[in-house]
């Protein structure tokens, strides 16, 4: 279980009749808990990335549906939640899970059945991430260097993380591990969130520009790569944060194992291949501007690009299955060929 | 010849007994000319990147040596200039050229011989870049999309550019070209300088995060890649801005031609292979902080990384010759196998 200043936190949780979330837009500079009291507000938080990371928005989507049932407007709420972000499968899995449970209950019990289903979905997601840690830790040798992209730690999940769960587990088992953290432009979830998590756990690491991953690989400084996933097609093609594809291409070129870590909700049996995964295009201002802390400690946004130029901002890319050494799942490390056999349909 | 607001500028030039440079640390927000009146000050400007780009710092180094001779301290000046930046070959070529010319002159004529040599070195560099444009333009088809990394435009050179010279030439010939501009963290010379240059020339372009280059290549949206170079070894291995290696690896994977454009001073016949090229490590604050313009128009530096984490900042990487489709030189497009035959030793 992941802690901040000695207290255990989940990234998203239900408390006092409201949805609470660690506000990830303010980290690493300020640790604040955001509160959402309506489905509409939860949808807004998912869209603005107060909460982000496929498993975490899966849970947020589930709790958002609880709010929709409590408000007596499940269709309207579902539409709003589904429209927030298109790529991560977990979001739709969370929404569907709660909708199904509520649909099976009597009208009087609908809201409480929805809440029970969301709580169960979140707890199950956390447990799956814990198991991913158990399954993946043996892959990490003592003294090795792991490269990761974006943030697939506990902030991206309800607890534990996906890509970082094996790292946390191996570290707690006493292995010496060094993590190379891709900064992950444009939003810098690597430099801001992954680095913050690793600092909290006391795991040695260095942040590198995304441009430097290949440099370290070619120099033999990377023993393995582990990333998370937003959606895994039935053939193993994997959508993840923009830049993952390049890391996977370089890993193959330089003979470095490349692993994807994900819970079952990220696997999408209805996507035959990666070409069917919708890719979110986000606001180009995420590229042309950058948020950071100025000299006075204030969080400000500065323009870092020629003002007359336009930018493009695809948020995800698809890594073809042939570049993935293995998928670290709650039930073990599998290959793309195993997916049809083991993924619950 | 490149222009800003209707006036032709070189990036570095000698005027009124001093070295003048477009201050590239303030672009694209402010166009300012910096003046250096001493060799020591020129060395400082090269180190802080007032002037940057291999051919441009070659000329700055040449003019810096002129100042060293004028100050009567050529050894001290040479040492200071050589210590500024280790990777670009052009810097050492510029210093050596002026030193040789001054050494061949009588003591009385030494300073004026040095200045004549520096002027000739700069003019020759500009002419070579013009020729690179002529030689490279036929490679660019009408309607094609060129991806480039960092800034290898006229700001990086005395005039015209290296990677961008063929783009400018083809554009002036009437070809329709679209340029995908890698932002190029950590210093964002792509988003800041290349985008500014392309805007000035009226060439359609979009800035993308470095993480997105592979995404566009896999989608078939990139017809060719052209980058500059800081040093090209005798076997064709090429040091260039960090991130070039990843772009080249992806280009090969997706079957896209990858070209390096460079004048002769960038080729180093004394480097047998890329492993002999010294790689500059720069201040990690370039990664953990980012400079940009805030709401009030002020240029500020903000922290964009977890404060407790350290960063690493290798400034260059080496692309092996086998990934380079061709080298666009002033004398034509050559392959690595041609280098021993055509490079002046």
**What percentage of residues of chain A falls in helices of 4 or more residues?**
25-40%
Alpha carbon gap, first and last residue of chain A = 29 Å
Main sheet: strand order of chain A = 8-7-6-9-12-17-18
Q: Could you tell me the number of beta strands of chain A?
A: 18
Q: Tell me which oligomeric state these chains represent.
A: homodimer
Largest interface, counted by CB within 8 Å of the partner chain's CB: A-B, 60 and 60 residues
- Element order of chain A: H for helix, E for strand: EEEEEHHHHHEHEHEHEEEHEHEEEEEEH
Individual helix count of chain A: 11
**Mean pLDDT, all residues of chain A:** 97
Structural class, judged by helices and strands of chain A?
alpha/beta
Instruction: Estimate the global geometry of chain A from the Cα principal axes.
Output: globular
Q: How many strands, which pairing sense, and closed or not: the largest β-sheet of chain A?
A: 7 strands, mixed
